[in-house]
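Dear U.,

Please find below the material for section 3 of the report. The protein was modelled together with pyridoxal-5'-phosphate; I have listed the sequence and SMILES used, followed by the predicted complex structure.
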Amino acid sequence: MQKNLQIGQQIIDSIHNVIGVKDCSLHEPVFDGNEWHYMKECLDSTYVSSVGKFVGQFEQSLVDLTGAKYAIALVNGTAAIHLALILADVGEGDEVLAPTFTFVATANAISYLKATPHFVDNNEDTLGVDPKKLYEYLNKFTKQKDGKCINLKTNKIIKAIIPTHVFGHPCKIDEIVDIARKFNILVIEDAAESIGSYYKNKHTGTFGLMGALSFNGNKTITTGGGGAILTNNKEIAKKAKHLSTTAKLDHKWDYLHDEIGFNYRLPNINAALGCAQLEQLPKLLKSKRLLFKKYEDKISLIKGVSLFKEPNECKSNYWLQTLLLDFQNKNNRDEILSLTNENGLMTRPAWILMHRLKQFSNNPRMNLSCSESIADRLINIPSSSNLIGKI
Ligand SMILES: *Cc1c(COP(=O)(O)O)cnc(C)c1O
């Protein structure tokens, strides 16, 4: 008991030492660039909705930043994953591999299509999908038939995999893409948390057939609500834009829609916010790295806990700073959570793993022991870009 309090108190002291003694949330947006200016331009022009110059400008800025050939701005990250799955031809009865250790949006989007999330394990090196375990699992439990990957247990087609770059840390995406190619599985990267994160100098979300970004209020940059699909495939880009704008054909006055489409396009006013936020991204990333270094200096002095560091050959955006307790300290997690929150420091455990949620509890899965171990020992600590003052 005494020991728990000690480690909890040491964590609180370390955080206070870095950010000063103040109440703070886990992650909040920072608006100190052209946000007001561009939003006002929208209001003054009355172009707040589906027409306006900022949507195209935002997409171009995303292309410039990520190196993807195309970016399609959408209403949120969940819609981006949903639409990406449709464009990957995922449908009823298909299985889609997804980490159990991710935000629920990934598994939800698969379920919207009456496809089945099939859960795979993550590892502690990257917090992302474990390529070695994935390869061994696919080797043992699937077969190839007519160029398709068949789950031997369910006889269903495994169409795609959605690896997540968890908390902004790139997973081993090149290895995952190689394995997926070998087994005829398409890759859609869940890069919702990883804008500004690079794997071997290439932006996350640009390795798979498509990548999905999110600009929700709690992400590194925000458009209020927003998301995007990244792709290098011209046909897919064209179709993504078409389907996200009610599948309407260009015509002076006729409302001619050539298939069932969605109202998923990002409004101009959100894109205006996004343009201003993207201008600030380099500064935000710099301050998040600095916050990591300052936390690391302090946390490394505490026995029994470590601060998660970007994997080798990666540059992480450090979206959420992450503590991992040693195995012998895992029973202290809840006490550390209450102690920090009581002291005005917002901390959070990992997501409840997808296979532990009622609605996904009977889904197909591999052994998920590593994700289970990570989830039991993980605590996110205050991570906003403005915590260490203006830079
Ligand atoms: C935020 C997030 C999403 C969904 O994004 P929204 O914009 O909130 O719909 C999807 N996956 C992960 C891993 C996320 O963190």
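For the text of the report, you could mention the following: DSSP finds eleven helices and 16 strands in the chain.

Regards,
Y.
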